[in-house]
Amino acid sequence: MVENLAKNLYRIIIPLPNSPLKDLNSYVIKGGDRNLIIDTGFNRTVCYEAMQQGLNELAIDLNRTDFMLTHMHADHTGLVERLATDSSRIFFSRIDSQVFDEENSWQPLIDFAEINGFPADELQRALHSHPGFKYSPARKPVFTLIEDGDIIECGDYRLRCIATPGHTQGHICLYEERKKLFFTGDHILFDITPHIESWAYTTNSLADYMDSLDKVYNLEVDMVLPGHRNFLGDLKSRIDELKAHHRDRADEVLDVLGDKTMNGYEIAAGMTWDIDCERWEDFPIAQKWFATGEAIAHLRYLESEGRIHRDTSGKIVTFRSVNGRQTG
Ligand SMILES: [Zn+2]
User: Fold this and answer.
1) CA 162 to CA 67: how far, in whole Å?
2) What is the pLDDT of residues 46-90, one digit of tens each?
């Protein structure tokens, strides 16, 4: 499905079957000499066919097309390698590009999940059902690396890269100042909440995310172009909602913890999740993985605020509230 959003700007909706995200917004700028495609969909046939159909409708010549990927997740990067031609530049964050390096394996994430209480016998199954494992590009693409403040030009669009770490460490949004357009990737979504996870105690994803929300709060924006679903309401009130949501979630973690000592997986199991399952035991394994990563991001955040204590002396990392039981 193709939609014209502004002069020379289009959206192709790419289906993401079996994903709670439902679909991905791939944005296409027709630039005369060269075109730009922002985000691509999973490396799956169903995504490839939807993209090809949209590009045909728009008469896009891939030999004159560049790509920009907002962040490393497979629903944004997966197809790029199948679409890019020899002349294509693929603009991508220097930080997120590191996950495609050969020496960068999934093993540290698996080990980290295990010391956070994720059942050892479920870890391989969790890995093999992870969309990043199944639907990433088959080979590392050749990237044109970008950083905060870089400008990408296409036709009369002048896009400023804004580093917005949080959803991923290298996440980049694009701001078109004259047209007051803001491509937010997965940094700001409207009818769903961006997933924030941590898979190492050296990163404090949630604190980074809150700072990155503040960083874009005062941009003058008429239209937000998110990576999934639609633009609803306005930017500032959505940022206020997202910040309140994560503060509430951090409080929920403290409630689940109470005066107990618990590991990250147990805390995730005790939190409420917007998913069609009554019991934690019935969650699909990939959702347990995402929930655990999100619980750990909130634990790391609470730890940095001095509200909980992390104990790494045993085989499994545990947490307890600094002030004992929380009330209210
Ligand atoms: Zn994402």
Assistant:
1) 16
2) 999 999 999 999 999 999 999 999 999 999 999 999 999 999 999
How do residues 223-249 score in pLDDT, each as one tens digit?
A: 999 999 999 889 999 999 999 999 999
Q: Distance, CA 185 to ligand 1 centroid (Å)?
A: 7
Q: Say how many Å lie between the CA of residue 197 and the centre of ligand 1.
A: 11
Separation of 23 CA from ligand 1 center, angstroms?
Answer: 12
CB 204 within 8 A of CB 150: no
The pTM of the full predicted model, rounded to 2 decimals, is 0.95
Rounded to whole angstroms, the Cα distance separating 164 from 166 reads 6
CATH superfamily membership of 2-103+138-234: Ribonuclease Z/Hydroxyacylglutathione hydrolase-like (3.60.15.10)
What pLDDT, on a 0 to 100 scale, did the predictor assign at position 27?
A: 98
> Distance, CA 151 to ligand 1 centroid (Å)?
22
Give the amino acid at 186: D
Question: If you measure from the C-alpha of residue 261 to the centroid of ligand 1, how many angstroms do you get, rounded to a whole number?
Answer: 31
Spacing, Cα 121 to ligand 1 middle (Å): 27
